[in-house]
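sorry for the late reply, my laptop died twice this morning and i had to redo everyting from scratch. anyway the thing you sent over, i finally got around to it. pasting the sequence first so we're on the same page, its 247 residues, then the predicted structure underneath. double check i copied it right bc i was rushing
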Amino acid sequence: MRRIEISWMITAVLACALSASAGDKKDKAKSSGQAVDSGSFGVFVKGQRVVTETFSVEQQNGISDIKAQLKEAGSAGAVQKSELRITSGGELLRYDWSQDSGGSLSVLPNNDFLIEKITASADGKTAEQPFLMPSTSVILDNNNFVQREVLIWRYLAADCKTEGGALKCQQGPVEFGVLVPQDRTSVRVRVELVGKDKVSIRGSERELLRVNLTGENFEWALWVDAQDQFKLMRVAIPDDNTEVVRD
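ok and here's the structure:
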């Protein structure tokens, strides 16, 4: 991965744990872990909130820990929980997902494979499914939007630079190999920077960067804030009448 020289892009690289820097060493000395991002996303279908995703992204000793909890509207506790751990080289260490009904799964690298271990219920047997995929493959599980944020950081760090004060990315979309653990399937997705957009966030107009995320059967628009470490602010999924907004 080539070195990217501008300060805000280094911040994005640190956030998704894809490279190291002298500034990172200073942060580690001050505390055992660096908080990169945290908050919540509201998931709205036809204008009604149906799910809230509460998340955190932390970095410690070159490892990023991405945690999320999904709670249905009106529910007292978390319905689903997940934790994704990746190294400073963007390699998967472990992914865990569980739901309150008892089902769970884990994904671990094993040589040239990713091994998914699935348990259908709390007292059920564990089944294994191998995927011939490198450990640098992206995890994008269902209804997990902080993982989409991490994907955008990875794309910006690897395929973009500044020219004349403007952010420039390679022409055309960039493909990533992706594992969707809950669906037990691997797919290819494409990420492409579109440019600046004026977007309404909770009634206030903001200038954000739009990034398109597309696959064989879907097309999403995502907006990130270039003034705040490229944090994900909004997602539009027109085919499902769904909108995701940072609270």
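The longest helix spans residues 145-159.
thats about all i looked at so far, will dig more tmrw
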